[in-house]
Design brief:
This protein is an all-alpha fold. 78% of the residues lie in helices and 0% in strands.
Length: 390
């Protein structure tokens, strides 16, 4: 990469930190739905509650931690506490014996995510030039997803070596501890912003209307994009063995990891709204396919499409948050974004779990596709608000 376009070292440090934590988390999540259903005996709606409440906890705390990071300017400490709490919570999953235990473990883990997410994203946004935001968020997201790709492979290796499910879940703490050591040894306490030349004219101030529209689009997209755990659960219901379930996460995260950085770089050259609209089209097609067709092959294809959708949307959405928020309020902006995303994911997971339990898989998929179509119309109708201020 030419020196003129090289990303700041901080981006790579945050990327490695994300990689190790996601390796730990996704190794566990690759079999967690089947563990909750098969070992703990939970229903689809109870699994929806566990996953959804965990995500709502995470996103609620991100609003608070983002606000604190804007006031204290001490983002590394919040990041360290968040990753440390997630690491300490990992063994709790292996020790759970019922709904209460698994819910406590999930909320503890997601509390850690809530404390670290907004300060980490605000730190990245503050120290990367606007023209490289798409690439920076794409790289961090891509490295995060490499961890998510390696995690299921690690879990499959442990299970094929005849480790018990509970022992395999407990060993997921080790990559999380490496992540904490990286924060302690490599992440600067308060990195200085990159020096940038004074602009020829004062940049426009981000508008509240544009940011609120971005939050509304985020809500619609999160309602449409339910947890991939439901795909894993359906594969398990179709007879795929526990040790082979992580292959779906490997496929999804492999597509995601390969395409996240190119999508981010593309969003620095093309209007980000175009990539966001394309991501919703991919999601809409995947959900209609799941509603109309059945079988394992359809689920594998949906997993690949899920990865493409995530690559086109997640880093782009974070870059848009940075584009449309004032520099001194980016922690709060990322916290608000995460709160809306998590609350909508909670509602979407709960609704989908209830629909699967009471009306069946096909109608549940059609309901998710409805939200995707509505979000696409919203993006197309208000595309002019998605252009960053100059």
């Amino acid at each position: 990469m030419p020196p003129a376009t090289r990303l700041p070292r901080l981006v790579y440090i945050l990327g490695w930190i994300s990689l190790f934590m996601d390796l730990s988390t996704e190794a566990m999540y690759s079999i967690l739905p089947a563990f909750m259903a098969g070992v703990l005996g939970l229903s689809a709606s109870e699994i929806g509650w566990v996953l959804g409440l965990g995500e709502l906890t995470a996103t609620s705390l991100q609003r608070l931690s983002g606000h604190l990071s804007d006031r204290w300017k001490n983002r590394r400490d919040l990041i360290l506490i968040g990753y440390g709490l997630s690491a300490l919570s990992k063994p709790l999953f292996a020790l759970a014996t019922g709904l209460g235990g698994i819910l406590f473990a999930q909320i503890s883990d997601r509390c850690g995510k809530g404390l670290r997410g907004a300060p980490r994203n605000a730190m990245l946004a503050a120290h990367v030039p606007p023209a490289q935001r798409g690439a920076a968020f794409g790289l961090r997201q891509g490295m995060d997803t490499i961890g998510a790709l390696l995690g299921p492979l690690l879990m499959m290796l442990m299970l094929t070596e005849h480790l018990s499910v509970r022992l395999a879940l407990g060993l997921c703490v080790l990559p999380a501890l490496i992540c904490v050591l990286l924060i302690r040894s490599a992440l600067p306490a308060d990195p200085l912003p990159r020096p940038v030349a004074a602009p020829a004219r004062a940049p426009a101030t981000p508008t509240r209307t544009a940011f609120r529209m971005l939050l509304l689009i985020t809500a619609g997209l999160s309602l449409a994009r339910f947890s991939e755990s439901f795909l894993i659960l359906d594969l398990h219901d179709q007879g795929l063995g526990l040790a082979h379930l992580p292959w779906l996460m490997v496929l999804m995260n492999g597509v995601y990891a390969v395409l996240a950085l190119p999508a981010g770089r593309l969003s620095d050259r093309w209007p980000r709204r175009h990539l966001l609209a394309a991501s919703v089209l991919v999601l809409l097609f995947a959900e209609l396919l799941l509603a109309i067709c059945h079988g394992r092959q359809v689920l594998w294809l949906a997993g690949a499409l899920w990865g493409l959708h995530l690559a086109l949307s997640q880093g782009v959405l974070q870059a848009l948050v940075a584009d449309h928020s004032p520099v001194d309020q980016q922690g709060r902006a990322f916290g608000s974004y995460a709160l809306v995303q998590g609350g909508s994911l909670l509602l979407g997971n709960l609704l989908l779990g209830e629909l699967i339990d009471h009306v069946g898989w096909s109608l549940a998929m059609f309901s998710a596709a409805f939200w995707a179509a509505l979000t696409l119309l919203l993006i197309l109708r208000y595309a002019h608000l998605m252009t960053p201020p100059q």
